[in-house]
Amino acid sequence: MLIGEEKHDYMDYDWIGDFLLSMRGVERLDDLGEQHKSYRLADRIFATVSLNPDGKPTNVACKVDPCDSAWLLRQYRGTIVCYQRDGSHWYSIIPKKHVPDEIVRDLLIRSYELTLTRLPEGKRKRILNGK
Questions:
Q1: Where is pLDDT greater, at 130 or 40?
Q2: What average pLDDT does the segment 81-97 reach?
Q3: Is residue 2 assigned to a domain?
Q4: 5 within a domain of the structure (yes/no)
Q5: What is the count of structural domains for the chain?
Q6: Long-range contacts (CB closer than 8 Å, 24 or more residues apart) made by 46-52
Q7: Looking at the domain assignment, is residue 8 inside a domain?
Q8: Which of 114, 28, 116, 122 is closest to 63 using CA atoms?
Q9: Quick check: is 7 in a domain?
Q10: Residue 29 above 70 pLDDT?
Q11: Average confidence (pLDDT) over 30-53
């Protein structure tokens, strides 16, 4: 049995928006409407959150290192390849499947770090120095 098969209620991921905004240099984009939030670092989106009408996350997408992707898909039924984005780097986390907060938090941090390391050196230094 995969992790997540035994649990069918939604995970409470209400903390995600505040967590992402607590990362240095992150901005939230609301340009796709109230039910879709994108989070970017400099000019690059590294996470998106889709919300139901009650404001609860229904899908969290983030960048994943391709080296981690096979493990992630095998381990957690609540993760899927995000084909509407680059399928080799983007994965979705579905809250109705059990993916522990610690794993979601780690994936979001890794997505942020992947994006940060790919920024030009000048932008990266400004972000890390809080400017």
A1: 40
A2: 69
A3: no
A4: no
A5: 1
A6: 46/111, 46/112, 46/114, 46/115, 47/20, 47/108, 47/111, 47/112, 49/16, 49/17, 49/20
A7: no
A8: 114
A9: no
A10: yes
A11: 88
CATH number of the CATH domain containing 78: 3.90.1150.30
Average pLDDT, the chain: 81
Q: Which two tokens stand for residue 79?
A: 């993760």
CA end-to-end distance (rounded Å), the chain: 47
Answer with the residue of higher pLDDT: 93 or 112: 112
Q: Judge contact between 41 and 35, C-beta under 8 A.
A: no
- Write out the residue range of the structural domain in which residue 77 sits: 16-124
Res. 47 pLDDT band, cuts 50 70 90:
very high
Which single residue is written with the structure tokens 């680059």?
A: 86
Alpha-carbon separation of residue 72 from 2, 10, 78, 104, 112 (angstroms): 11, 19, 9, 11, 17
